[in-house]
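A reminder from the course coordinator: this example appears on the midterm review sheet, so study it carefully.

Given structure:
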């Protein structure tokens, strides 16, 4: 069954590429992981990992030891090429697809009759067709899907199959989640599906590449809009002096209401980014999607201002920011609102900000240069300090009420709502006057 797909080349060994490569290798296929960064290639070749993700270290080590997983800076001949490279946003909120096209150029010389090319990176609508056009230009000796081949079957199959795994649960979700398989032609989709069925237990749904591209963007824009609702609600509740957490808890008892959690904003390389791809493609139509992005980005500004107000009311206290990552229990700082808020506070109060972040060893340069210092949780709890809780890491959740009741707390995640505390998503509250 593996014959068509026995050699797989995964282009990009990041948060998606590396777990995907290791998982495929664990199913008995030979996987070459390719990354342009030699330090990543060296780390993976040693059987180690450069990111934090549950159970990934063991799987990579096993893959490398069994020689099923190798890593290099250049691709080689393979039956399947899976492109999992980043597609960031430019400063003016336009998708940057350059990495996809350079990965495409790199694989072009290694394509053969019967090769399968799969694009997994989040992309603007039409990118899979552009990948095909680029390959067709580079390999005039091969026939590509959707080009006039005078009735001849395409030599190379091309499909768009977006990843949809949640950081922190990547290995579980790579196997369990349903997949959307978008072929440039039905034959491409059918072939890509056979490949995914080697390691996916969820259902695989075949569709057109353009539809699959839109599905991926839709999923993240949907979540962004839902979080924007919660964030806007938190501002409204602060304004009318009502506890938003209580409102959400009670509203969610309605059988058809399920409000997400407000926070300091939305981060990560997906939800904070992908909706802009839709806005870029349809600026006049994507009004709610744009507004959601603006509401979620604006929440970080609001939290920064509220934190400043709290710091001004406790001028003599030490200030601790709890958490920097974009969400709980990960080490990923990309687009993190917590990082942005900590940086802005440290710029405003140089040499005064201490940061507790159990998932990283060193503070990012910008924070260090403004005099911020890394601290342990115990230090933050030792004396009555200002605690600005930015990330809902489990380590923070476990702090008992009696260890924090003397602190001035700004709980942006609604995590420390206890018997003795009134916490808001927006305004700072709490504290030393609370009974023990
Ligand atoms: N957040 C809130 N309130 C909530 C839920 C999340 O403020 O109620 C914040 C988080 O703190 C974080 C951000 O939103 O800053 C995004 O976190 P997330 O856990 O919602 O999503 P990601 O970015 O880790 O992963 C998303 C997922 N997409 C959806 O749930 C629709 C994942 O399935 C995708 O594979 C991933 O994006 C991706 O790679 O596109």
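Designed residues:
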């Amino acid at each position: 069954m593996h014959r068509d797909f026995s050699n797989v080349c995964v282009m990009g060994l990041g948060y998606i590429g590396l777990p995907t490569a290791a998982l495929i290798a664990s199913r008995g296929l030979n996987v070459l992981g390719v990354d342009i960064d030699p330090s990543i290639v060296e780390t993976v070749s040693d059987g180690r990992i450069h990111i934090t993700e549950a159970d990934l270290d063991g799987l990579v080590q096993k893959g490398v030891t069994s020689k099923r997983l190798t890593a290099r800076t250049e691709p080689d001949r393979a039956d399947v090429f899976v492109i999992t490279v980043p597609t960031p946003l430019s400063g003016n909120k336009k998708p940057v697809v350059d990495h996809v096209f350079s990965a495409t150029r790199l694989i072009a010389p290694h394509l053969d009759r019967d090769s399968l090319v799969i694009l997994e990176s989040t992309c603007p609508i039409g990118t899979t067709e552009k990948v095909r056009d680029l390959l067709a230009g580079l390999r005039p000796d091969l026939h590509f899907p959707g080009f006039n081949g005078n009735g001849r079957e395409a030599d190379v199959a091309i499909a768009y199959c977006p990843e949809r795994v949640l950081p922190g649960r990547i290995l579980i979700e790579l196997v369990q989640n349903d997949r959307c398989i978008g072929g440039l032609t039905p034959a491409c989709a059918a072939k890509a599906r056979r490949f995914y069925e080697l390691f996916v237990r969820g259902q695989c749904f075949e569709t057109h590449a353009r539809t699959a591209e839109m599905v991926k963007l839709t999923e993240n824009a949907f979540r962004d809009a839902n979080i924007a609702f919660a964030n806007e609600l938190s501002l409204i509740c602060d304004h009318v002096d009502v506890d938003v957490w209580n409102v959400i808890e009670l509203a969610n008892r309605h059988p058809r209401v399920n409000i997400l959690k407000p926070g300091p904003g939305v981060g990560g390389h997906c939800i904070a980014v992908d909706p802009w791809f839709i806005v870029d493609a349809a600026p006049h139509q994507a009004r709610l999607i744009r507004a959601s992005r603006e509401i979620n980005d604006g929440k970080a500004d609001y939290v920064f201002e509220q934190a400043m107000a709290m710091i001004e009311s406790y001028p003599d206290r030490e200030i601790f920011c709890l958490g920097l990552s974009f969400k709980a229990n990960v080490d990923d700082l990309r687009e993190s609102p917590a990082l942005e808020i900590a940086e802005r506070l440290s710029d405003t109060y140089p040499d005064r900000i201490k940061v507790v972040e159990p998932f990283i060893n060193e503070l990012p340069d910008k924070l260090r240069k403004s005099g911020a210092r890394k601290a342990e949780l115990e230090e933050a709890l030792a004396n009555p300090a200002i605690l600005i809780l930015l990330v809902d890491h489990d380590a923070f959740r476990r702090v008992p009420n009696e260890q924090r009741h003397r602190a001035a707390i700004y709980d942006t995640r609604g995590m420390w709502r206890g018997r003795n505390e009134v916490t808001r998503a927006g305004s700072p509250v709490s504290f030393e006057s609370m009974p023990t």
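The chain has 16 helices and 13 strands. The chain has a mean pLDDT of 94.
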